[in-house]
From TrEMBL:
<feature type="domain" description="Pus10-like C-terminal">
    <location>
        <begin position="263"/>
        <end position="499"/>
    </location>
</feature>
<feature type="compositionally biased region" description="Basic residues">
    <location>
        <begin position="224"/>
        <end position="237"/>
    </location>
</feature>
<keyword id="KW-0819">tRNA processing</keyword>
<dbReference type="InterPro" id="IPR020103">
    <property type="entry name" value="PsdUridine_synth_cat_dom_sf"/>
</dbReference>
<feature type="compositionally biased region" description="Low complexity">
    <location>
        <begin position="196"/>
        <end position="223"/>
    </location>
</feature>
<comment type="similarity">
    <text>Belongs to the pseudouridine synthase Pus10 family.</text>
</comment>
<dbReference type="GO" id="GO:0160148">
    <property type="term" value="F:tRNA pseudouridine(55) synthase activity"/>
</dbReference>
<protein>
    <recommendedName>
        <fullName>tRNA pseudouridine(55) synthase</fullName>
        <ecNumber>5.4.99.25</ecNumber>
    </recommendedName>
</protein>
<feature type="region of interest" description="Disordered">
    <location>
        <begin position="196"/>
        <end position="239"/>
    </location>
</feature>
<keyword id="KW-0413">Isomerase</keyword>
<dbReference type="InterPro" id="IPR039894">
    <property type="entry name" value="Pus10-like"/>
</dbReference>
<dbReference type="GO" id="GO:0003723">
    <property type="term" value="F:RNA binding"/>
</dbReference>
<dbReference type="InterPro" id="IPR048741">
    <property type="entry name" value="Pus10-like_C"/>
</dbReference>
<dbReference type="GO" id="GO:0031119">
    <property type="term" value="P:tRNA pseudouridine synthesis"/>
</dbReference>
<dbReference type="Pfam" id="PF21238">
    <property type="entry name" value="Pus10_C"/>
</dbReference>
Length: 501
């Protein structure tokens, strides 16, 4: 039994009222106006009472009767014939304190199906109604008497039930913002609650579908932010209209939750010239076989039961380009995981990815990452070097000595790299702005396969258009392999051999 449970709040209030008649009179006056017991004690400015505990608290009417009796005996006053409890909804908190808040939060959070989490934090959103001013005016209460702010009162109620929360969720309730699970408790007009619940059910269904259909329908779940169903808000109501409505229907509790993302990082390899980086869609129908992200991401989406997932990588290669070992760094963000505390054996997942793709897509060095890895992945896109292996076709025959002569010619004296100028390639002009930029080529080597085919090894600065470096893109890249060999040149096959940070 907790410390607070040992104290009977009614007894304490009784004792206080016996000693303080002025307080008792004021309290009765407020209760007569239909305010709930929590609000009445709060408005009277006494923060000592443990009326914070909302569970099994007597109704305002019961307390009123008891206290009235006390006042009658003390002052011998006449009985008030009017029934102050006609109004069911407290005009100050609009029903918030009249409900068992803590149990409601626990029940509604449990309905969100989080099976495990390490810590949680509760934030409260209360409509800005400034309800106290009404009673201060009506009852001509002394404003110098400190009213206890509603939000402060509410926080205390919840904090006093800390143990209850921790037992229910087997988790720590922490006051910091950095808690793993964020529980946002909102009070909204009761008539909006039902509508909101039906939206939640819709989301729940689509969430389950998204896990099942990730492979078939991943465009909607990967990289695309889920459309949130908007709650309809009361239309352009004035503050007074709003208050009137609240008095009639009251406020009900609504819970929104979001768990901190889980990050997984590693390198991927791709051994096919038909697998794209991300899913391709034509008129909303997915084209071709699975993409790299579809071979990797769904495994983690399933195990952590995420709401959605984001797949990021340090650049990407074209569909017909292979990515060889050690692979390209990538990062997965699992958004709002519902089962986050999984201890997973990453080597087992590396094996699963390999088996499921028949070795076409592999992942290595898998491990948990952080949000900081995102910056590193993005920076890598600009700063890294790339090593390519490829096969080049030449329209004119060549030989070893000519190759040596050409390679020697491109390097200026005392420099181990050379610069090429590239205008935005024709093939990407429809989606990128026209730019002319310099790119460094750090190394260039050729092995003669036969007089028309060369095996090329080259290391280039990030962002070099490698196909255009070979074929010259109608003279838009210079110097190019075509220009150097003074004939037509095409890249027949390309592999990314390494990404060097
Ligand atoms: Zn109230």
């Amino acid at each position: 039994m907790s410390f607070f449970q040992k104290i009977n709040p009614i007894n304490e209030l009784n004792e206080f009222c016996e000693k303080n008649q002025e307080f008792l009179e004021k309290l009765l006056k407020i209760l007569e106006n239909g305010y709930c017991i929590g609000c009445s004690v709060r408005i009277c400015g006494n923060s000592q009472f443990l009326f914070y505990k909302t569970k099994s608290l007597p109704t305002s009417e019961e307390i009123y009767k008891e206290l009235k009796q006390k006042l009658k005996t003390a002052m011998n006053v006449e009985e008030n014939q009017t029934n102050p409890f006609k109004t069911k909804i407290c005009p100050s908190c609009f029903g918030i304190l009249q409900n068992d808040i803590v149990s409601d939060i626990i029940i509604k959070t449990k309905k969100r199906f989080y099976s495990s989490f390490k810590s949680f934090n509760i934030s409260l959103q209360i409509p800005d109604l400034k309800p106290e001013s009404k009673i201060i005016e009506e009852e001509k209460l002394d404003p110098s008497n400190q009213f206890i702010a509603f939000k402060h009162y509410l926080k205390n109620i919840i904090f006093l039930e800390k143990i209850n929360f921790e037992q229910n969720f087997n988790s720590k309730m922490v006051p910091q913002v950095k808690a793993k699970l964020e529980i946002c408790v909102k009070w909204i007009p009761s008539n909006e609650i039902e509508e909101n619940n039906s939206n939640q059910n819709l989301n729940q269904n689509s969430n389950q579908n998204s896990i099942q259909n990730l492979n078939q329908n991943s465009n909607q779940n990967l990289n695309v932010k889920r459309k949130r169903t908007r709650r309809t808000k009361p239309k352009r109501k004035t503050q007074n209209d709003y208050l009137d409505e609240m008095e009639k229907i009251g406020l009900s509790l609504d819970v929104e939750t979001k768990h901190q993302s889980i990050w997984i990082t590693g390198n991927y390899e791709k051994y096919s010239r038909r697998v794209s980086h991300s899913p391709w869609h034509f008129e909303n129908v997915k084209e071709g076989i699975n993409s790299v992200q579809e071979f990797i991401a769904p495994h983690f989406m399933q195990v952590f039961k995420g709401k959605s997932i984001k797949f990021m990588s340090s650049g990407r290669e074209d569909v017909d380009v292979r990515m060889l070992y050690p692979g390209r760094p990538f990062l997965i963000e699992i958004i709002d995981p519902h089962d986050p505390n999984q201890n997973i054996d990453f080597s087992q997942y590396e094996q699963m990815i390999k088996n499921q793709s028949d070795g076409i897509v592999c992942a290595n060095s898998l491990r948990f990452g952080t949000i900081q890895d995102q910056t590193q992945i993005k920076e890598g896109e600009e700063n890294k070097r790339k090593e390519y292996w490829g096969i080049v076709w030449l329209s004119k025959p060549t030989d070893k000595s000519k190759i040596n002569q050409i390679v020697a010619q491109v390097y200026s004296e005392k420099s181990d790299s050379f610069v090429i100028y590239q205008k935005t390639p024709v093939r990407v002009l429809h989606r990128r702005a026209i730019l002319s930029r310099e790119r460094k080529i750090f190394s260039l080597q050729f092995d003669l396969i036969n007089p028309h085919f060369l095996f090329m090894k080259t290391q280039t600065q990030a962002g070099t258009y490698i196909k255009e470096f070979v074929n010259s893109d109608f003279g838009r890249t210079s110097p190019s392999i075509a220009e150097l060999f003074q004939c037509k040149a095409e890249l027949v096959q390309l592999d990314v051999k390494n990404i060097i940070f």
